[in-house]
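agent: user wants the full assembly modeled, not chains individually. Plan: 1) parse entity lines 2) check alphabet per entity 3) run joint structure prediction 4) return tokens. Steps 1-2 passed, two entities, 594 residues total. Proceeding.
--- entities ---
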Amino acid sequence: MTTAPMFEDWMKSVQVAMEQALLQYLPSVQQTPERLHEAMHYAVLDGGKRVRPLLVHAAGALFDADETELARAAVAVEMIHAYSLVHDDMPCMDDDALRRGKPTVHVKYDEACALLVGDALQSQAFDVLADGRLEPARQLSMVRLLAKASGSLGMCGGQAIDLASVGLTLSLEELEQMHTLKTGALLRVSVLLGALAGKQLSENEIAALDQYSSAIGLAFQVVDDVLDATADSATLGKTAGKDAADNKPTYVSILGLAQSQALAEKLRMEAHRALEQFGDKARRLRELADLIVQRKA
Amino acid sequence: MTTAPMFEDWMKSVQVAMEQALLQYLPSVQQTPERLHEAMHYAVLDGGKRVRPLLVHAAGALFDADETELARAAVAVEMIHAYSLVHDDMPCMDDDALRRGKPTVHVKYDEACALLVGDALQSQAFDVLADGRLEPARQLSMVRLLAKASGSLGMCGGQAIDLASVGLTLSLEELEQMHTLKTGALLRVSVLLGALAGKQLSENEIAALDQYSSAIGLAFQVVDDVLDATADSATLGKTAGKDAADNKPTYVSILGLAQSQALAEKLRMEAHRALEQFGDKARRLRELADLIVQRKA
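--- prediction returned ---
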């Protein structure tokens, strides 16, 4: 029996494999329209920690899912995430010039190009996922899950609530609901798609994974707010202190810094508890919960 | 044996049923976020001739497809079409204030809302189509066809080429390639999804339907250009003369008016010829080719 690699090494290997997989599933920059395809590559490649792909692979480990199908699901989710960042950064939304330490797509290219990059990445995500080799009925249910997580009752809906909440005083419950949609839905679907790449899930398994997902989803946002209030732009690779400057409600503005940090730790423990039934196979999911709470950027 | 209804009556009945189906598959305006859902309804309902849904239903008649599954495919295609109009009208793209005789979504709501309406409609389209009741492998292939028709090698790619061509002198071939992607891809997939709702297609059937689709796709654009040059805004329900004002290459600017009209008629005949093998069952597809070429708006 071989020893499992250390978390850092596992993470690195997923990130490297992910870069290859994304390149494989993106249209070639040699194909017409070349500039659009180049901008799609710019938006997707060489970026971020790949938290969602890591979740896909970590959840896939629960049921020994096929690596190719895991990579496919991870690519689909990451393309949705990347498109949402491109649109979110546009002047009519958050108007951000810096993302992952590089000029945002509408700055590097132009606004019309950024709009089309996002639109085309969304289509590409569904094309990739629908081309999977799993049992067709299960593959279809994965497409539906991704569509629901992306749409007006998921990520897009969360962004709409976020925009509408600028300058308002939100209660903790309202803030939570917003984030459950805005970032939570895509984190949850990452976990579910990874597990579904392994096998059809029982209701009990879905419930446990949902408990885990909702804990890390909220933790992710609480830590984002803490970092936005405490880290600098160079460390974050994006503009720090932007929430306060934009007068956006955050966990830090509602709970204060110390209580926000305590909440993140409490959510980390909840995530661990949700995984108990899966034993050692859930090791990577546990380590990811730790990463999400303990990250510095 | 009952006589088939007249084309006008058939068209009207599809349009009325379509309005119901769109309403059924859109998220309710009572659901959070209400404003986003209201704007999605505004973008989709009560609009246009529903050419793509008519094509879905007309192609479905070839193989006696189930009405519910045809409506589902028609809704999915129309949601993609509606999202593309919302994004296309935005200031960073065509910057149009009038669409189907009403203020465009970013004018009626705001730009951020228009961006999210388009994004959410695209997700919704895939959710609807992936929830179909056909044989799962065939349903998956329909999802892939819609994704490809929508993405950077289809509609989005055509829009990118269109944007890049403003102020340039395009050859007839380049103009044709642009339109084949920009509008042709979605018209083609409308025909294919309608037929696939009936049965798995043979290569020979796909080839005939593709010949039909490419003829009506080009005819559609040639007639659009003719109308843009000859009709007024009130008749069109959108700003007339915009192509010339924007210095965009069109069939009229390259071929002149008379030759453009002759080309449209030639393409109409090509569309009819492509349908010969299908006999009387292709009646609606023939009538739609006539409509596309002979319309006044």
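agent: reporting back. The CA atoms of residues 141 and 196 of chain B lie 9 Å apart. The beta strands of chain B are 98-99, 102-103.
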